Amino acid sequence: MALKTECQVRIANLQQQLQRKELDGALILYPIDLYYFAGTRQNGMLWVPQSGEPLLLIRKSLTRARQESCIDDLRPFPSSRQLTELVGRPGQRIGLTCDVLPIAQLDYLKKVLPEREFVDISGINRNLRSVKSPFEVEKIRHAGEQLSKVFAQVPDFYQPGMREVDLAAEFECRSRKLGSEGYVRMRAYNQELFQGLLVAGGSANQPGFFDGAVTGCGLSAASPHGASTAVIRPDMPLMVDYTAVYDGYIVDMSRIFVPGSIHPDVQHAFDTALEIQRQVIAALRPGAIASELFDLASSIAAEAGLGECFMGVPGEQAKFVGHGVGLELDEMPVLAKGFDVPLQQNQTIAIEPKFLLDGHGVVGIENTWAVDPEGGIRLSPADDRIVTLPAQGEPS
Amino acid sequence: MALKTECQVRIANLQQQLQRKELDGALILYPIDLYYFAGTRQNGMLWVPQSGEPLLLIRKSLTRARQESCIDDLRPFPSSRQLTELVGRPGQRIGLTCDVLPIAQLDYLKKVLPEREFVDISGINRNLRSVKSPFEVEKIRHAGEQLSKVFAQVPDFYQPGMREVDLAAEFECRSRKLGSEGYVRMRAYNQELFQGLLVAGGSANQPGFFDGAVTGCGLSAASPHGASTAVIRPDMPLMVDYTAVYDGYIVDMSRIFVPGSIHPDVQHAFDTALEIQRQVIAALRPGAIASELFDLASSIAAEAGLGECFMGVPGEQAKFVGHGVGLELDEMPVLAKGFDVPLQQNQTIAIEPKFLLDGHGVVGIENTWAVDPEGGIRLSPADDRIVTLPAQGEPS
After folding, report:
1. Residues B243 and B364 in one domain
2. Shared domain check, A286 and A150
3. Contact assignment for B60 to A207 by CB distance below 8 Å
């Protein structure tokens, strides 16, 4: 029942935006958009008129959609002729999430729904999704609690001489057993992530397509992100940057482990990251301007003498320090240059100040927070501190 | 160097098709398409004129693209004004893979490349990609050999009383340690897969969005496929249907395990699946008609008295018995009703005859094969037979 109320509120919010933009309705086709508004990600289409009851049309599986969805009017996917009767009328303006829907889908819709005008509602959708209900915040908090348990176990399963991919495999295994769904959705068509990034020492210097401070080498040019077959070396920082996914909701965290001893430069950069986190979180309130929080983070980095390696190596520095998370990893808002928008209560944001230290690798922290009048509320409880690991195995 | 030659041949094949369709060039933007033609999946754009040298423009990371790509003319992504000069001319017809590119990308391209006509080349791309070079076949064979090793280890890590997700986690862990990249690409915008489907007993009866014989319950309505938290029960078939990914190339396999004893109905259905595999593979030759191989499979199922539960429960039966695999899991051709196309040498196809047995679950076999004049060449060597597992733990 909680989900039913959730979906009703989400649809009412969408309808309010449709009215404001003078649109006659919205067609929701993309799987995670359908899940958000209808409670199911089966293969189908949700028609949300500007006012009145929504209509859910399901290709596959109707049986399962009936179990899951909170939409009362749920029908098997109709013939093209019937579809024309059911969805809007000629002359109407209909919203689509054009940021993700393929061009071929638009061509199909133009054919079966002639004389409608299709309008991009990506911005509306992303803005609505960025503000979480208490129900959604609890989902992310649950994900954060579960993922924190895996982070706490790293010293139990880390073994000297492991390759990055071995440790990643063990981490992923425990996360899955705790119930993480594994599949991480990203909205940008050119971004992909397989669960997380495990990057040790020099692997952090390999730049990549990923829109973050660090990408990692990955296992091939086809999957060029995350853990590689490089052996984790002693006395170098190891960053474990992972997601967990529960009921579709993603939490995003990073922790630093060091096999052996922590170099003073590494500790200095880490302490600076914690100070950035502290100050940004104190300011993570409704009305704060997203870009100003990035400026705040940058200025702390510069004061600590680390401006040149904040969020990347010189020339490849990312110009952000945080990003929205929810049903997708790359949600709104972004705490970045140019995002001069005010934060809203219960937006959920991963804050990740990180430094690329020449000769050491990547150092930093990442937690997921909810925007609140008292400052950010932490949703990922694991201890922030660097954890040291044995540099060498016990003599056998 | 092998990759450079590969990419040159792929681009020459594309240019030949562009000429045939009287297109002036193609713009390749989608990550896995870029990887296929340029050898890198960094964030950027490949311009392939109808004839002459291609041009690769990279947003991020230029450094990494230079390491990976075989395109000689590789440049940083230009300003919009420069882009207009570099990519085609007004009046020209330019191909795009409209099956996957978002509508918003088309809107952007129309702005920066005015007066060009954009034409869908999805079919050309999918057909080119369906036929593998010997280099590509070897990639899939390697994936098949590695994944076969994980299948062989299942009796070592299976424990009575495990939940589906526990066994899935252990399977995935070993596959990752052997080097599987994990991230499985699918082309259809409404399909998703997290590594594989592990489905025991009654979990097979849960229908779902997934375009296959079986979907599994998954962990939530947001990720409604694959392993669930259900405990694996004795005397019921357990289907382990998994992919492995190496250098982006996917292999697809299924095996049946039974904790305890094999019911005669399960054995009968399994033997029928093997017979379907045997006959379809014998016919997997250039020139064979894809839909006729599905008909052949269906008729063997019907003769064995299993027509009603072939590839799904009545009313939700999938109308295919095999699908192309390569850089994506849902490649061409499909051995399905309506696909009246001849097979081509070195198309790589996963053949997966499966039965949904009332009261038991799913039973069948899946291997990946290359089309060959002598009949299908096996790329996934693991033993086909059902493996029995202990029904109960050793008394302690």
Report:
1. yes
2. yes
3. yes
